[in-house]
């Protein structure tokens, strides 16, 4: 059972070293999709570094099952203009 604590501890360390998202948006509609979204979608940037000099973009899709108990997946990858 200790192996299950490793990802949670790693996430805690990451979250302790970043600030709250400097910008965030709740997305209600998407182009090409009629009506409101059927799930919670948030996007934004999280500042990292001593002076938030690096901004990481994120998508947050809330669990449609049980958000309080379902696992959280943090996926970061670089790309053009996104790598540090």
UniProtKB/TrEMBL annotation:
Residues that span the membrane, as ranges? none
- Print the keywords alphabetically: Carboxypeptidase, Hydrolase, Protease, Signal
* A GO molecular-function annotation: serine-type carboxypeptidase activity
Kindly state a single biological-process term from the GO annotations of this entry. Answer: proteolysis
Task: Say yes or no: keyword Protease present.
Answer: yes
- Provide the family line: Belongs to the peptidase S10 family.
What SUPFAM superfamilies does this protein's entry cite? Answer: alpha/beta-Hydrolases
Q: Could you name the domain of life of the organism this protein comes from?
A: Eukaryota
The molecule here is called: Serine carboxypeptidase-like 16
Name the PANTHER family on file: SERINE CARBOXYPEPTIDASE-LIKE 7, SERINE PROTEASE FAMILY S10 SERINE CARBOXYPEPTIDASE
The secretion signal range is 1-23
